[in-house]
Structure formats: structure tokens, C-alpha cells
Amino acid sequence: MTLTVALALGAIIGVLLGLLGGGGSILAVPALVFGLGLDLDQAIPISLLVIGVASLVGAIPKIREHHVNWRMAGVFAACGIPATFAGSAVGRVLPQSVVMVGFAAVMVVAGIRMLMDRGDAGTACEVGDSGIDWRRCAPRSIPAGAAVGFLTGLFGVGGGFLIIPALVLMLGLDMSVAVGTSLIIIVANSAAGLVSHLSGTSIDWAITAAFAGTAIAGSLIASHFGTRVDTDRLQRWFAYLVFVVAAYVLVDTILLR
Questions:
Q1: For residues 79 and 82, what is the distance between their CA atoms, to the nearest angstrom?
Q2: Is 67 helix (H, G, I), strand (E, B) or coil?
């Protein structure tokens, strides 16, 4: 029965990933904790595995289309990977209830970002053919990369809902390049987070394979048919769903335990 639930939840998360991109992964941890009854230390590595593989699959066409800013991805990864290990370390010493309340807050921020998404651009950090103006970009990209990495390690989220606004609004990248660059950053941070959470954690690999397998398959299928879906409307409704799940997490964590 547990494997059946894992297959079903994985498929739902995968479809959301395929239709919405990285934002769909925000529900992976709540699905594993409340849907399958896993502890947080078991749910986070499974979530990171799904996020990392799905992002890697999504990044391949972006790489082929040259829609990745490798320098910016390198900066975010260099700052984010150590912060990911730091976030994992902090998560291990905090009570699960505290982490879940924090996760609910992150979900609210993600939902707000989805509702506010206007595709605006900020001040560009690139100067003609000379590359990136690091004097202008470093004070923005280094803290942003570290913050995203810390959240990845602490909560098991990819952080695309924070990376893309940072790349577009703070650093001035085009949206198409920001999406591809974000996927590469998520792959790097998720891999680091997975490594940091595997030590000393007992993982049910049957559940992991079932959840991750259907999530990845669902993501590939949904991304293929995604052009036929009104993604703007879907994103709004998904944001409302995120708010509802965040409220449930808070009620369950604070009032029912």
C-alpha cells in the first residue's frame, strides 16, 4: 500500500514539475512527510534526489540551446554548495517542528513569488562582449547563492522560486537564460544536499525508487504536453494550493502535535 501511495504522489509531483518547472518541487517534502508518514530526515534526501534528477533532465535542452550563463551558475554553485552543507547541519540540530514551521514560511514566500511573477528584468550585470561586471554583480550574486544553498540543505527545496527572481531582477539575465542557469544551480545544490543528508540517515530505497521514478516519468510526460496548458492560470491555482498546504503544515505542527 505504501508503495502504491509513493507511486501516486510521485506522479503528481512529477506532473507539477513538468508543467511548472522547479516550483512544483515545493510540495515534495510535505507529500513525503504527510502522505507517506516519513520523518523529515528521510523525506529531504528523497526530495533532493527527485529535484536534482528532474532539473538535470530539464537542463539538457537549455544547454543545447546555449541558454545557460555558466559563469553565474558557477558563482551560485560555489557559494551555494558550502551553504547547503551548513543548512543540513543546522537542520540536524533543530527540532522537526521548528524546521516544518520554517518550511511552511518558505512555502508562503514561494506562493507569493508565483502570484507576483511578471517576467520583469532588472539591471544587467553583463557589459557588452566583456562579460560580467563582477564589481556590480558580486555583492548581489554571492549572498543570493549562499541563501539558496542554505535553504536547499535545510528544507530540501530546489530554490528555483528564489534563484530565478535573483537572476532576472537582481542580475538582469534574460528569462530564458535565467531558467537554464537556475536548473544547473539546482542540480549542483541538490547533489550537495543529497550527499550531506545521506550520512547517518536510513532511507527506504524501495519508496525512494517508486516516488522518484514516477516523479521523473511524470515530469517528462507533462513537459512534453505542457505547451497545451494555460501555465499562467495553472501557476496561480498552484500558488493557492501551496498556501493551503502551508496552512495545513502549520496547523498539524503547532496544534496537533
A1: 6
A2: coil
- Cα separation of 229 and 104, whole Å? 28
Residues 6 or more apart whose Cβ sits within 8 Å of residue 28: 13, 43, 46, 47, 50, 51, 156, 215
Residues 52, 68: Cα–Cα separation, whole Å = 17
- Reported residue count of the chain is 257
CB neighbours of residue 90 within 10 Å: 13
Q: Backbone dihedral region of 159: left (phi > 0), alpha (psi from -120 to 50 degrees) or beta?
A: left
151 and 106 Cβ atoms separated by less than 8 Å = yes
Q: Is 201 helix (H, G, I), strand (E, B) or coil?
A: coil
Residue spans per domain, the chain: 2-254
As given in the structure block, the three cell numbers for residue 204 are: 527506504
Nearest to 63 by CA among 236, 187, 151, 191: 187
Question: CB 2: neighbour CB atoms within 10 A?
Answer: 14
Strands (E), 54-210: none
pTM of the model: 0.80
Read off the DSSP letter of residue 128.
G
Q: Tens-of-pLDDT digits for all 257 residues of the chain?
A: 688 888 888 888 878 777 766 566 788 888 888 888 888 888 888 888 888 888 888 788 888 888 888 888 888 999 999 999 999 999 888 998 899 999 999 888 888 877 876 555 555 565 444 556 666 677 778 888 898 899 888 888 877 777 877 787 777 777 778 888 888 988 898 899 888 887 767 778 888 888 888 888 887 787 666 556 666 777 788 888 889 989 988 988 887 65
